[in-house]
Write a structure and sequence with these properties.
Number of strands: 25
Structural class: alpha/beta
Shape: elongated
Strand content: 15-25%
Number of helices: 15
Amino acid sequence: MQQENPEVDPADRWVRDPETGQYRLDPSTDIPAQRRRAAAKPAAEGRRAAQRRAAAAKRTRRRRVLKWTAGAGALVMVAGCGGAYYLYQRFNSNLTSVKVQLGDEAERPKAAGDALNILVLGTDSRQGLGREYGDEGSTGHADTTLLFHIAKDRSNATVISIPRDLMVPIPECQSADGKKIPGAARDMFNNSLGQEGRDPGCTWKTVEKVTGIRVDHFVEVNFEAVKSLSTAVGGVEVCVAKDINDSGSHLRMSKGRHVIQGDDALAFVRTRHAVGLGGDLTRIPLQQQFISSMIRKIKSDDTLTSPGKLYRLADAATKALTVDSGIGSVDRLKDLALDISKVDTRNITFATVPVLDDPKDENRLVLKQPDAGQLFSMIAGDRSLTEPAAAPAPAASEATGAAGTPAAPTVDPKGVRVTVRNGSGTAGQAQPAVDRLRAKGFTKAATGPNAPAAATSSVSYPAGQEAEAGALAAALGLPGDAVRPDPKADPKGPLVLVLGKDVLAAPTPSAVPTEAPKDLQRVQADDTDVCAK
């Protein structure tokens, strides 16, 4: 068995055989063997020089190949896997994959074309870490949750943080071994993972139910991943606006900029008591700053042109990740990472889901509406947060009010009462529709009882509210024949929107907000001036 030479970087020991096209260990890097051959048969100085030039040329070619295949993209948890392509056999065995059970396909949101939504779960598992990190042996919950949306044209990405203390409905789910796990009408989002044996598939279903956004894949990382990935890239630069001494996270840091890795990196992303207001909402911007900085580091030439760093990053990433079976191989992660790497860092926006204090419990949070619905609708409709998107131009028929979607009358949507009834045949469609309406200004929209099954959506209105019904239909992109009077309705009653099966389709451009909610917390990935306060 050939002995590895510790003086040679492992990434430099692999070369492409021009005859077979496969990658193999380069025997020229076995320095002890070279010395034995040299002792047996001295080589001329000219030959040695030629060998050195050839070896240098090989290393240059290898760096170019590795740079092309590194896939150093916005999704920091998988970006390093691109460099693992040529070490497939070694790194593929590092990965842990889980087959998730998502239930009835008809109950899930529809995909928005070729856009990608990847759920990143940072668990607080303490297994194998001892007591210094808190509850020794804890299996872990959804402590840090990020939903990465990558636009279908790969021009931009939006990353939304979902607070762990957010109160949400958790649907019934099924574990990989077939066990049915009961849901909860109202519980902390944190409990969608780990509690009652819930696996990442349960969190996946919860996110889809709460946001109305289709999730394509998940990536799970734990405390050890933060330590190993930050070390693999040689440290991550962060900034704090004041001295920090947090006994909870063990972070001790003076005011200013620091390059951190390992235990210090983990302490930084866990810190909450010593900054801001001391809660989870304070910790989220720290994590966004850290991940933005790591993205920049991975995409930098300093990393892309270093085979050693790429090797260590790929090794650390594949060991640290648990993924769904759909991306449960290095090949698939490599393809994903290369795809994501097309997004320019300046067009990656981090944001926190708009929330308010829970009126029932000051230590918990609830969604702030209509802002949360507006944000979810933008992501589901593939709208960028980088800059306001132009509203789509109406078709000629829309402008004239002829066939097709009616022209929107001049109506203030804030004064329009709307009852939304679900007739799609698929549970859970009314509330997302209400959220979308509120995001478009219909703040008095509310859910009503289910309606009989309907193929298409419709709006019925009491006498005297034809203009309001037309405005509602226009806002939803419904055709003119979807609006009909209801002579039996109370003239002072609300409009009634019945959702048909067509509501399960991807959002139409006219139904998607063009601007983000006001006062949305956000961080741009290319902003190097962010400092934790």
